[in-house]
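Holo prediction — iron/sulfur cluster.
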Amino acid sequence: MTFFSRYLLEWYHGQKRDLPWRRSRDPYHIWVSEIMLQQTRVDTVIPYFNRFIGKFPTIESLADAPEEEVLKCWEGLGYYSRARNLQHAARQVKESYGGKVPDDREAVFELKGVGPYTAGAILSIAFNQPEPAVDGNVMRVLSRFFLIEDDIAKAKTRVKMEVLAKELIPSGEASHFNQALMEHGALVCTPKSPHCLVCPVMERCAGRLAGRETSLPVKTKAKPPRPETRLAALVEGRGEHAGRVLIRQRPSSGLLARMWELPHWPAPEVLGAGAARPGDAAAMDRLRRSLAEAGIAARPEEHFMAAEHTFSHIHWTLQVYRCREEELPLPVAAEARAPYAAQRTSSEAPELFADESGQSAERTEMRWIGRGDMAQYAFPNVFLKLLNAYFDERDAAASGG
Ligand code: SF4
């Protein structure tokens, strides 16, 4: 254990990357970076982190910002509940701790969205407290070096790893050591092909000596995401809405809460193995009915494109249809940029938002937007790409390209 800690720390001092959140010990910066780094690569996080800290330089500024702005800053990073929880926690810190991140274990644990890993990271990196910060990367390194064959998907293995990781922290070196462990997992003891030949602890790595470096850690596979085909409408406006498309806001809780998107609904099973084929007349008919039920006067005209979006538990295939706004005497269709609401009833809710619950009576905000309006709304990546593809294609057609 002493060998491992000593050589890892030495290696870290010589090899650590210059990352924006390493340039200060500000607990707020460390906290933001750790939340962003969950499930996300460092290279992806860097520009987001810089933009986020530029826009919300203090906890107060984050606490006081409109949620829409926070989501916009997070747009494309995924797992948007992280952003909402971070803002909620910033408000907790502002109200209960005068805007200073607490250095007390109990208090840090009470912040929304802060689990054992993030709490350990904040307490150790910012306050140098000997707290373990154990995530999948750290468990991989420890499993290999100490030849631990316990299943890292199990909660009790994590607890065991936390005990070990805490024991490994050299006195007074919690901040550097925990970062060394994370950095080693990211750069050397990587998931698929660990770089054992340049590893600072390879000499005594039990996993490598046993030839197990690529078969460890043991991890039972998570259930694959459930596939779901959805019919999406790219409604092109006409008359006073000409040049714009219709977007709607998701409910205030559940999947992608309060993000903006193209309207879409689950494709009925009857369309064939749960999937609609591009250009399928039955799918277009179904979409037309879903649009009408939602109070949107539009007719699907042709298949635009398919797009994929994966969550931890669902995999969406979106079949997107170009639809044309119709002039029907529906009061909702008369609204221009003002929000219009399609009030849903309880019986319609499963049809409209099959992946949420308890949101049946919530107003659905909708907007007609042009390309220039996109900056005002936060979209999940898949819809951002779809809208950009649509506006690109339209601009190219308009310019004869
Ligand atoms: S020797 Fe290989 S398996 Fe062992 S800790 Fe180093 S990189 Fe990982």
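READOUT: The beta strands are 226-236, 245-249, 260-261, 264-266, 298-310, 314-325, 340-341, 365-369.
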